[in-house]
Write a structure and sequence with these properties.
heterotrimer, A mainly beta (138), B alpha/beta (387), C mainly beta (167), B: 387 residues, nine-stranded mixed β-sheet, 11 strands, C: three-stranded antiparallel β-sheet, 11% helix, globular, binds zinc ion
Chain lengths: 138, 387, 167
């Protein structure tokens, strides 16, 4: 029996509130600064920052600026033209890693890339995309 | 035999149309922190956490993951529930089962929704069957309105009587510091003159869309007695599900089959034969003014067709024989994933004697309901006496 | 599943009160199987403008939409019977509040008549549109008749709407 399929589309707009910590993070990005928060109990440095440490169940109030440079923990390549390379990047001084694009690098070179730095966009608006990508530190 | 279980603490956010000062995790933290403070506990004292939310409304799959920092689920046993309008009561009933089973002693149930982040009217259409319903569905309000006319036809209730429910809700809400819509001066006239959304439902007949969260802590008998001066004991829980399609229920609001089945099961378990006399307060899930009147009838607070007369006689006012929704109800506060759990929290506050200015004097037995799409119902009966 | 920023999201981030708001557009396509009962129903509707239900041998309820099992008796359903095209209004409204139709992402044009309709011979009801938007002219119990589209494709929208019948 042949299939009888109904195609449907779901299209819903959303507006997400960034909240206390992420607002400062995003505002900071517009100024080429990366803000993290540090839990006073477990000393974890969170980036993206959050206002609450879920492990210690306590509010986080300490802010810390991180360098726009760090290590690639892992990466993946989505075949496209040009290929989309995503990396898991731990900024120096952070305990968590950020997902972002990797640029100025060919897929076959990735194996050798350890250190990366943020490359900022000219037209920054307070978005994670204010960092255009992370490029290898050569 | 199930163990005895009581609610020992509750916490709510200040519910509002838009909580733009916090994100989802931060919103939940507010309610959870208040519940922990209420029982003088820390997150370490909580053995398991259950989370309730309707994902399509924020478009967040896995809110339990994205917001885990805020709800204290890190490395704890936990489950997320998503059952529609009933999600809050489903979460509460699950928390009851967790504790009654003997596996966990102290369990927190959380409900939240941040409706300002999505489009509820649009997202709710996805509850409809994609082949048979979605292409003709009319959003939450239109779908409700088609049921309301059936109920008006069957019972003879009028738009004025429904408007009285809307007035009662918004005035009661003024006594509830957490309520979203507080309208001390609202009149029946105001309701009748408010914008027609879909006959017979006008803007003020309908619940608002809110951002809010609630947390409720359940404990086994010895802990409950130690931690709460007056625990709210769970006397009965019941749930019932309808058939598949929206048109399956023959008389819609006029004969809410799942509400009738679940409430009768709960009454029987709690030994209640005359709910109007034996219940002291009810917190029911009335998404619109007309629904509350229909629920009076289906819950057996009055005879068929008498729902309108009950509000006329003031029976369900805060000072009446059986106050319904002293909190202001869903008509005043509706963060959907939290809404039914707020009913449970408010019923518990009444039993614990902590309902402040909306307290029903001497409340000993309270009813809480959750309701989803006229299709399924959850019931909890709370009591000052141990079951 | 693809959840991506609005094309203009980098411009649209707005400052409200103390926090930022970030817009996203959820835009997903689904492929739903109509199933065997739906196939028969929609084939009859498309090819013959005929509405069909299935009867439960135990409780004798005729179900529309047709389905494999009676939820009440938990009995398999095999007996197809024709229902409608006339029926009775069980509940109705005129939708005046605009809302976004998730199937198009656009606002559904309002006002429109909307009703729960019990087709003759059926025990359950269908939701569909009415050809009337004047609240004073519609009532519960009123007789209606399905108006079929000329060009039918095998969907519930092959019924254009239900027309109120003169009494
Ligand atoms: Zn910590
Ligand atoms: Zn049957």
């Amino acid at each position: 029996m042949s299939e009888w399929i109904v195609r449907q589309k779901i299209r819903i707009p959303f507006q997400y509130t960034t909240g206390r910590a992420l607002t400062r993070f995003l505002t900071g990005l517009a100024e080429c600064r990366i803000w993290a928060t540090r839990c006073a109990e477990c000393a974890r440095v969170y980036v993206p920052p959050r206002s609450f440490c879920g492990r210690c169940w306590r509010e986080i109030t300490e802010w810390r600026e991180l360098p726009a440079e760090g290590e690639v923990m892992s990466y993946t390549v989505r075949p496209a033209d040009p290929p989309l390379i995503l990396g898991l990047i731990r900024l120096d001084g952070a305990d968590t890693a950020l997902v972002h694009r990797l640029g100025e690098v060919e897929p076959e070179e990735l194996e050798r890339v350890v250190r990366v730095r943020a490359v900022w966009r000219e037209d920054r608006t307070g978005s994670i995309l204010d960092i255009a990508y992370f490029a290898p530190v050569r | 035999m199930p163990r005895r279980v009581a609610i020992i603490a509750t916490g709510q956010t200040k519910h509002a149309a838009r909580r733009l000062d916090v994100n989802i995790a931060e919103l939940i933290t507010e309610a959870v922190t208040r519940a922990l403070q209420d029982a003088d506990l820390t997150m370490r004292d909580i053995d398991a956490v259950l989370l309730g939310n309707m994902e399509p409304f924020e478009g967040f799959l896995f809110p339990e993951l994205w917001a885990v920092e805020g709800w204290g689920g890190y490395m704890k046993p936990s489950v997320k529930f998503n059952t529609g309008g009933t999600v809050g009561t489903t979460t509460a009933i699950a928390a009851y089962y967790y504790v009654a089973s003997g596996i966990y002693d102290t369990v927190m149930a959380i409900g939240f929704q941040k409706q300002s982040e999505g489009h509820t009217q649009t997202a709710i259409t996805t509850v409809g069957d994609p082949i048979w319903e979605r292409s003709v569905m009319a959003g939450a309000i239109g779908n409700f309105a088609v049921m309301a006319t059936t109920y008006m036809h069957e019972s003879g209730v009028t738009e004025e009587q429904a408007a009285k429910v809307a007035v009662k809700a918004r005035r009661n809400a003024c006594l509830n510091e957490y309520a979203h819509l507080q309208m001390p001066d609202i009149t029946v006239e105001d309701v009748l003159k408010s914008e027609m959304l879909a006959y017979p439902v006008k803007r003020l007949d309908m619940c608002p869309q809110s951002d809010g969260a609630v947390a409720v802590i359940f404990a086994e008998e010895s802990k409950a007695q130690r931690l709460a001066p007056r625990p709210a004991w769970i006397k009965a829980v019941a749930t019932a599900h309808e058939q598949q399609y929206m048109g399956d229920s023959p008389k819609r609001l006029a004969e809410m089959r799942s509400l009738i089945a679940a409430s009768r099961r709960a009454y029987q378990a709690a030994g209640i034969t005359n709910p109007r006399r034996e219940l002291d307060v009810a917190e029911i899930y009335e998404v619109a003014s007309f629904a509350e009147l229909a629920m009076y009838e289906n819950l057996g607070f009055c005879e068929r067709g008498e729902g309108g007369k009950l509000i006329d006689a003031g029976v369900t006012e805060l000072t009446g024989e059986l106050p319904v929704n002293p909190s202001g109800g869903v008509l005043s506060t509706n963060p959907i994933g939290a809404t039914a759990l707020i009913r449970v929290a408010e019923a518990a506050l009444q039993i614990m004697g902590k309902a402040g200015r909306r307290q029903v004097e001497g409340a000993r037995t309270a009813l809480a309901t959750g309701y989803g799409g006229n299709a399924w119902t959850d019931i909890l009966i709370l009591s000052r006496e141990k079951p | 599943m693809d959840r991506h920023p609005h094309p203009e999201s980098r411009e649209a981030v707005s400052r409200e009160e103390t926090t930022l708001r970030v817009p996203f557009l959820l835009d997903v396509e689904y492929r739903y199987a109509v199933g065997q009962y739906g196939r028969r129903f929609f084939t009859e509707l498309r090819d013959h403008a005929r509405l069909m239900g299935v009867r439960c041998p135990e409780c004798e309820r005729v179900y529309v939409p047709p389905r494999p099992v009676c939820g009440i008796c938990y009995h398999e359903l095999h007996e197809w019977v024709e229902v409608g095209p006339e029926g009775t209004i069980v509940g109705w409204t005129v939708v005046r509040i605009p809302f976004i139709d998730p199937m198009t992402g656009e606002q559904r044009p309002v006002p429109y008549g909307f009703a729960i309709i019990r087709l003759d011979g059926a025990a359950t009801s269908l939701y569909h549109f009415l050809d009337e938007t004047d609240e004073r002219k519609i009532r519960v119990g009123q007789r209606v008749r399905a108006v079929f589209r000329e060009k039918r494709e095998g969907s519930l929208r092959d019924i254009l709407h239900f027309r109120l019948l003169e009494e």
